[in-house]
Amino acid sequence: MGEGFVASLPSLAIAFFIVLLTWIVARFAVRISDMIVGRTEIRASLKTLIDTLVKLGIWLFGLFVAAIVVMPDLTPSSLLAGLGIGAVAIGFAFQDIFENFLAGVLIMLREKMRIGDVIECEGIAGKVEHITLRETHVRKLSGELTVVPNSILFKNPVEILTDVDERRHEVVVGVSYDTQLDHAAEVIRRAVEDVEDVLASKGIDIFAQEFNSSSVDFLVRWWAGSAPRAGWESRDKVVRAIKAGLDEAGIEIPFPYVTHTFKETVPVSLLGDTRRKTP
């Protein structure tokens, strides 16, 4: 055993030198990767992933060469076969983790859904605060934090509410049946145009939508900020302005009520006789 150990010292020294050289090359390769990737606009987490993959690839190659030097009987084909079987076993054991990992990589490569966007997916709505390789942190508008696996965001439709700075909002306004509809539409249009938060230059839509139980309903649509709070504020101001405009014009905003109509008059005396004949 002693003679065998002494005989293997040169191989061990060469393997140690290869490992040391691998460490030096890996450090320089990461720096070069940072210089190249740093000129792009990809996310910080994706940059970290690229650095890790570069370092891992160099270390695997260096250790592979060092192992062959120490154990000459080890062939590349046998080592690759062992790694393949191990990779399959690990893949089955950590299927969900790898699924979320790959989904995270693909999400980071997308141009859409950036940090700060307000999204909605599978009943989860909120502001994106952080994106990692396995999960995305979504802060609800009420303050709670939801940790969402990346596979959910990748496999399901995601609605990005703040993809652009403005989006269209809408509200339904009802007027009474005795109202002249063209006049009511003009009053509503003037009221909406005077609201500060409304982007009147992008157009205001007013459509007579349907005959409701006690009103004729208009669908009013306008453009304002895309953030949820901007939408709520503009909706509040639009509703107040429409109410004031209709009141000033003398146009009724009806509430549900029931009208009873008797087509034939029934004498009171007949009703009295009927009550007397009824046992």
TrEMBL record:
<keyword id="KW-1003">Cell membrane</keyword>
<feature type="transmembrane region" description="Helical">
    <location>
        <begin position="12"/>
        <end position="32"/>
    </location>
</feature>
<comment type="subunit">
    <text>Homoheptamer.</text>
</comment>
<feature type="transmembrane region" description="Helical">
    <location>
        <begin position="53"/>
        <end position="71"/>
    </location>
</feature>
<dbReference type="InterPro" id="IPR011014">
    <property type="entry name" value="MscS_channel_TM-2"/>
</dbReference>
<keyword id="KW-0813">Transport</keyword>
<feature type="domain" description="Mechanosensitive ion channel MscS C-terminal">
    <location>
        <begin position="170"/>
        <end position="253"/>
    </location>
</feature>
<dbReference type="InterPro" id="IPR010920">
    <property type="entry name" value="LSM_dom_sf"/>
</dbReference>
<protein>
    <recommendedName>
        <fullName>Small-conductance mechanosensitive channel</fullName>
    </recommendedName>
</protein>
<dbReference type="Pfam" id="PF00924">
    <property type="entry name" value="MS_channel_2nd"/>
</dbReference>
<keyword id="KW-0812">Transmembrane</keyword>
<dbReference type="InterPro" id="IPR006685">
    <property type="entry name" value="MscS_channel_2nd"/>
</dbReference>
<keyword id="KW-0997">Cell inner membrane</keyword>
<feature type="domain" description="Mechanosensitive ion channel MscS">
    <location>
        <begin position="96"/>
        <end position="158"/>
    </location>
</feature>
<keyword id="KW-0472">Membrane</keyword>
<dbReference type="Pfam" id="PF21082">
    <property type="entry name" value="MS_channel_3rd"/>
</dbReference>
<keyword id="KW-0406">Ion transport</keyword>
<dbReference type="InterPro" id="IPR045275">
    <property type="entry name" value="MscS_archaea/bacteria_type"/>
</dbReference>
<feature type="transmembrane region" description="Helical">
    <location>
        <begin position="83"/>
        <end position="109"/>
    </location>
</feature>
<keyword id="KW-0407">Ion channel</keyword>
<dbReference type="InterPro" id="IPR049278">
    <property type="entry name" value="MS_channel_C"/>
</dbReference>
<dbReference type="InterPro" id="IPR011066">
    <property type="entry name" value="MscS_channel_C_sf"/>
</dbReference>
<comment type="function">
    <text>Mechanosensitive channel that participates in the regulation of osmotic pressure changes within the cell, opening in response to stretch forces in the membrane lipid bilayer, without the need for other proteins. Contributes to normal resistance to hypoosmotic shock. Forms an ion channel of 1.0 nanosiemens conductance with a slight preference for anions.</text>
</comment>
<comment type="similarity">
    <text>Belongs to the MscS (TC 1.A.23) family.</text>
</comment>
<keyword id="KW-1133">Transmembrane helix</keyword>
<dbReference type="InterPro" id="IPR023408">
    <property type="entry name" value="MscS_beta-dom_sf"/>
</dbReference>
